[in-house]
Amino acid sequence: MNGKKDSFEIKISSATKAKLPLAGKRSGWIGFSCKAWIWNVWEFCNEDVNRVAFAFKVGVAVLLVSFLILFQAPYEVFGASIIWSILTVAIMFEYTVGATFNRGFNRALGSLLAGILAIAVGQLALCTGPVAEPIIIGISIFLIGTVTSFMKLWPSLVPYEYGFRVILFTFCLVIVSGYRMGNPIRTAMDRLYSIAIGGLVAVLVNVLIFPIWAGEQLHKELVDSFNAVADSLEECVKKYLEDEGLEHPEFSKTVMDEFADELAYRKCRSTLNSSAKLESLASAAKWEPPHGRFRHFFYPWSEYVKVGAVLRYCAYEVMALHGVLHSEIQAPYNLRITFKSEIQEAANQAAELVRVLGKDISNMKKSLKTSLLKRVHSSTERLQRAIDVHSIKFTKTLPKLPCAHSSTPSDFSNQLADLDENNSIEKTANPPSETLPLARTESYHETMRKQSRRLHSWPSREVDAFEEDGGLNTDILPRMSALESTAALSLATFTSLLIEFVVRLDHLVEAVDELSKMAKFKQQGF
């Protein structure tokens, strides 16, 4: 407080500046650590072994088409145009089989259309004579470039963007080289043969050598998302019920989401950002032939995307629960443990249901989830009844102090001391019938001091530092009363978010059941 009425000065300490690593201060090869680099590469490969397989397959495919140039016999047959096969492999080869088929279709269709257009325009220009021929070719290049660039921006044609790009550069190369060589038909056919060879090699290598199926990747990604949401829910509720509200992350760390001890939280956050990845994998999986456990045509890959969307709808509630957990205003610990058993039971039942749904998708089997869903609803109803019974605790406010004009820390402390003395006299005159736990019989003076960091300033500060700024005046007391009520309501916010999560589970169960019907999952036990 800076001495002016109704004016407060809150000093926010600047975040600690991260120390730059010693290696970052060095330049050149002096700061390079070969051991650290090798370890990073090893960890990167361990995260996904398919990365190594993909790199190996690309090398094999490029080597195979290079033999057509390195050996004299095939080079005499195909000539210098065979270089297009190497270009096709490098551009067309994708991480998954489905993505390779998709890009191969765009490559083949684009090259075919470009070749036909190049032959037609070349023959037309050849008939007009040497003066008009370059003019017609130049105009055709301008028109093709303009039309293809505009069409690939059309929303419904965005999936075929690569095909329009292929049409553009294939047409330009074929028409220009045919003009200089004097035979556009021969030039176009040589290019198409080379592109076909490169595309065939890329498809065969990708399918026959350590195939990486987009469908399997999509299936695994969705199952991992289910487990991540369940783990994050249990982790959040556990920390909320065990935390005594005394030690919390600093404000700078809170806004940056730097919770190093919450691994499940980071996994849940990645689930929220998985929408584009799931859609990309589903789009690639549609091009794949029946394989592995997905042995029938027209497999409903789009349903995986729908289930992922509903799961993210539930994950938003988990992230909101984490926001309450790390908020600046917290409910007193003795109020939180009042509903500990009900909150814990509801969270455990909900997390178990999410895991069961993920397990059903993983095993591709249908199980009866009616009994489990009923237990989740029953635990939630018990939590709601407990909140209704103890609803008075959410509206409790500060008791009125006898001295209404104190403005110094000593006066306010005397008021609190008198209040505690009055409370002790009342307890002596009317002794309780049962001995309550120490946490429940704690005086309000001590409870207020423990929560002062969250009630009196933002960002939080210790009570001694707050009093050193100039003490409390009478205007602060109503604010303290309102803040105490707000702190109690944070528990109501937490429980309401948990109940909302359970309500959204009904939609998740329906989405998984729809997927199991369309994908023809087997009944549990068969």
TrEMBL record:
Keywords: Ion channel, Ion transport, Membrane, Transmembrane, Transmembrane helix, Transport. It is found in: Membrane. GO terms for biological process: malate transport; monoatomic ion transmembrane transport. The keyword Hydrolase does not apply. Signal peptide: none annotated. Pfam families: ALMT. InterPro entries: ALMT. It is a multi-pass membrane protein. One of its GO terms (cellular component) is membrane. The keyword Membrane applies. The chain crosses the membrane at residues 52-71, 77-97, 109-126, 162-180, 192-213. Belongs to the aromatic acid exporter (TC 2.A.85) family. This is Aluminum-activated malate transporter 9-like.
